Fold these 3 entries.
Entry 1:
Amino acid sequence: AVLRAAVEAGRVSALYVIDPGPATLGDVDWIVKARASGTLPILVVQGVLMTPLAAAADVLLAGATSAEMPR
């Protein structure tokens, strides 16, 4: 709630999000809306799926799935 308030107030200049997938990260619509409105100037997302959050990112970094990790 504190981060969301700071982002929506324009007090965050960049946000880095590790996105494990749409079912586990929770509600991220507020991040997408903040990026679209310009309230959040820079969004960096690391993930394995093309989600609305990833589509809104300025920088998109590849993540690794459990199938790609060494055992």
Entry 2:
Amino acid sequence: MPLSISILVPIYKVEPYLQRCIDSVLSQDFTDYELILVDDGSPDRCPQIADEAAQKDARIKVVHKENGGLPSARLAGFQIAQGEYVVFLDSDDWLLPGALRSLYDYIQKGYDIVKTRPC
């Protein structure tokens, strides 16, 4: 059975924010997801942070690629995504508690597209 959600996070020069982003996903009460971290050739410690997170949690996948920009990074993550639904999360953002469950509940009510807004 496929996963419910694939969360795609493109990564480039966001070392101060990346761990918070990862932790916000891992702390969700909805757990039927995979977190795909796409290192877009980041020159800082982001690749190591992503690899360390993947070693600690089997739901995390890491893609390392040459820098190609945001669309290229999202495509690289999308190509390996196994979830029925896709969530795009910027690497300098984070999810509030309960966010994935809320999004998924709206999908289950029949909405075709579910969008969030900044707080």
Entry 3:
Amino acid sequence: VNLNRAIEELKKNGFLAIGLCGDGKLPISSFNENSPLVVIVGSEDKGISLLLQKKCDYLLRIPLKGKTSSLNASVAAAISLFQLTNK
């Protein structure tokens, strides 16, 4: 509940909520918004809850090649922060 309220408050103050999700429709490399961001990384096992996904302005995915089907949460966070801050 507190996380959902925090996201709502940040969005009221001009932030975009970005969720990292394997099922995200937009690859992170194609994301080009230039607003303050809140990056939401889900748990290792279940990812981001459906309720929190609905609060996100964008659900981004990190495209993977090879046999890897998903990333560790800390690795996904590091990749996304690198990608989003280098635009």
